[in-house]
Design a protein that fits this description.
The chain is built from 3 helices and 8 strands.
Length: 199
Amino acid sequence: MSIRREILLIIVLIFVIALLVKVVEFFRTDVVEADASNFVLEDLKSKYPDADLEIMSITNKYNPLGSHYFEVKARVTEGAETACPERSHIFYNYPAQNFIAQPTEAITRNCNVCTEGICTIAFSEEAIIASHKLSGTYVIQAYLNVYPDAVPTISEKAESWIVKWDSKTAQNYYLVEIHRNGTIMQVKDLNKNGTAVAN
């Protein structure tokens, strides 16, 4: 009877030790992930001081020698409050590896969106550009020509983006709804109180 108790006690102790090892590994990983995130953000702040920055993902990886590192994907948006924001995805390996990280992905450049192939408006920066560049948005471009201080505000629905263009000096503002497939769903000209402008 006592041998069974001892075996059961040993099994419980092994289980507790294994659980403690996992807890320690979890906290150690979190600390290293935080270090990777801080390193990347500091580097990006020095390279893009006026940009809007975000860590998009941190992925655990192992190099061919079995050493652990993180692949960090970051977003850099320059000119976030302009009509033509430029978005890039930048990849880092932390700690640095002996191989080159993935090349930078240019998501929006030169104020162009949906210029070839299937159109997908996946990011807010693409929606901002689409709101005044795609067919059916000539009134928005005209508004921006008259009110160059207009600022975009964006919100997201399940299947669409809504871009609000508003200038402090204008008596009206515009709402543009863009489907994620690049179709302009509606353009609304509204007074500052939210009622439709009589045309």
